[in-house]
Amino acid sequence: MVASAGGDRGDFVINGDMIDGVTANDDLNEGAGRCGARARISAIVVSYFTGPVLGRCLDALRRQDGVCEVILVDNGNPDGVVKAAIGDTGAPTPVKLVSGHGNVGFATACNLGARAASGDVLLFVNPDAVMPPGGAARLAADGAAKGGAWLIGAKIVDPDGAEQRGSRRATLTPWRAFVEATKLYRFAPKHPYFRRFNLHGDPCPDDVIALPVISGACFMTPKNDYFALGGMDERYFLHVEDVDFCLRFRAAGGRVFFDPHVSVLHYKSSSRVDPLFVEMRKTASMLRYFRTHFSEVYPAPFMWMVAAVAWMQFGVLAAFKILRRIFVPWRVFVRRARASVTRR
User: Fold this and answer.
1) Are 140 and 32 within 8 A, CB to CB?
2) Are 97 and 82 in contact (CB under 8 A)?
């Protein structure tokens, strides 16, 4: 179901029961050149038990120049949370609510939001990210200035202003994942064979540059270019779908850019989801990505080894977190018991 809440109203008005599909183009470049400074931007936010920061995210987007609508895809939130997040802020930009489908995963939800969009350009923003004033218009202008088919990502920063891990990234390959998991980069950090996946430790560029992969926390692309690829690959439930999309976008002739002029505050992990579930999904998605794009490039034994290392790494992390959940409450109980005896 698609609903809207806009202007100075906090109530919902049903617009329709179905989301119309969007016809994909065969050529990425067919949608290029339509997104200049006056592009109509549809901002898309996917939320699942996000928490209070969702309201800040939506309010910042509703006040952006060039954003004609904010589409909130509700994958699941407690009663009243979404309505409170939309609120009565007086922001002129309407909010469309896409709901009733359950937790279908991030990639599928992005596609639902994109199909409900009426703008020429799609801006995807995480529900725990806050766009700076003028950020959407700057991304649209910088992307359109590059010409052709473009996908542009913002600089993602922590609350302390430091660039966040994952803001800029290299191409993810099985070898690079193996280097990360085994920490081989420590032996020869400057060697090209041991280059790391995340590039936030490198000096930040002064201007827009082409990069293999940008962050899925905040990125923008023309709608026609998005659907020319069929949108996000819905086989990914959580994580790596953005890495996959960047790889497919470049393979289809598009270009991926990083824009250091737009710094988006990202709070991270605001969703009340078990971290072990997130890590399990991330591992499964990464291995699916490798099978999809690299099974014919790398020998099977090496792919098996990478999968074994990835699941072993998850197992160690899971064991540590489970033990911590068991022993930390017990230690707190013992400490309180001792304090009670001492007071007596």
Assistant:
1) no
2) yes
